[in-house]
Amino acid sequence: MKNMIHMWNQISLVVRIIIGIIIGVILALTIPEAASWISILGSLFVGALKAVAPILVLILVMHAISSHKSGKKTNMKSILGLYAIGTLSAGAVGVIASFLFPVTLKLTTGAEEISPPEGVLEVIRTLLFNLISNPIDAIVNANYLGILTWAIVLGFALKNAADSTKTMIGNFSDAITKIVKWVIDLAPFGIMGLVFDAISKNGLSALKEYGQLLILLLGCMFFVALIVNPIITFVFTRKNPYPLVLKTLKESAITAFFTRSSAANIPVNLTLCKKLGLDEDTYSVSIPLGATINMAGASVTISVLTLAAANTLGIEVDIWTATILMFLSAVSAAGASGVAGGSLLLIPLACSLLGISNDIAMQVVAVGFIISVLQDSCETALNSSSDVLFTATADIAKKRKKGPIA
């Protein structure tokens, strides 16, 4: 038995995940009722990731800041700039693609009970209140803005603490990191359960009616992942970006696609950053921050669905309004994690720019929930993998600038 476990662990994690996906598909198509218990593995895996992520972020960020030596520079300014460029570029792709390939919606009902934010000020207000949330409440509710705030404040407060205190925090950080590794090793079984659950419930059948919209949405996301992000990376690194892009897609996007949670994918991204040899002082802050504000996929979703609603109602959108929508999509996307329901609930905010009533906008939200089986998965995969990509891009760019001096 030990030999089998050892052999299994020797196989690449990605290969093990692919094996899990294949087994999940086969079981869902052949014996869905007899193997129904397998779906619990998916729920347990996502639950474990969500459970460990808040504590991991708190301890890791607090440790990184408290042990940071004065004079040692991090890349946070560059990374924040890359996050902004990436999210804005994604919004532009969504707007341009919607003009080139206009789609209309078959509006439905079913989102009347959802309460979207009434304006940009409400989104900002929510974000600000999340910043000053009670620390226990922030951890319990996985409010990563609140967790980051407390981790940063405690980290700076502990900078002058005794070495023994910093060592203890470091030991906690190592212990949590080890627990995360154990959880991630279970990814093949968890993803097998997630795939089985999705297929056995025939979740994809509802997508046929909205095929054209899905193709446009997913096409934009793939374009951002495989064309736009590589261009941004190349501009900053002056190196072939695709080895790094494909590695982040393979090792971050795959798990994010199935967990459908940027927060749950934080441990996966932190492990990948360590594997890439990035600066821990930087990535321990940039990854959880990216899971909160780096939302290229959400920017695409907001812009595409808003313009699809405009096309459905025959509303003509001029170039200036489209430009404003591009920026509004990017800003709204950055605030998506602070609003219950994510990017879909920010569509009414964007629709209001075009004079679309809230009743119609909420029907668009309902369409979004119908196609979210694929839309939300791809959106999360793009959001999460971009966090690692831009963190690594900033690190490579920094080393490139130091190169000639060395």
From TrEMBL:
Localization of this protein: Cell membrane; Membrane
GO MF annotation, one: neutral L-amino acid:sodium symporter activity
Gene3D superfamilies: Sodium:dicarboxylate symporter
Reactions catalysed according to its record: L-threonine(in) + Na(+)(in) = L-threonine(out) + Na(+)(out); L-serine(in) + Na(+)(in) = L-serine(out) + Na(+)(out)
Pfam families: SDF (PF00375)
GO biological process: serine transport; threonine transport
InterPro entries (UniProt xref): Na-dicarboxylate_symporter, Na:dicarbo_symporter_sf, Ser_Thr_transp_SstT
Transmembrane segments: 12-31, 37-61, 82-101, 138-158, 179-199, 211-237, 293-313, 319-346
Record's keyword terms, sorted: Amino-acid transport, Cell membrane, Membrane, Symport, Transmembrane, Transmembrane helix, Transport
Domain of life according to the entry: Bacteria
Protein topology in the membrane: Multi-pass membrane protein
SUPFAM superfamilies xref list: Proton glutamate symport protein (SSF118215)
GO cellular component: plasma membrane
Entries under NCBIfam families matching the protein: PRK13628.1
Function statement: Involved in the import of serine and threonine into the cell, with the concomitant import of sodium (symport system).
Family of the protein in this entry: Belongs to the dicarboxylate/amino acid:cation symporter (DAACS) (TC 2.A.23) family.
Protein name: Serine/threonine transporter SstT
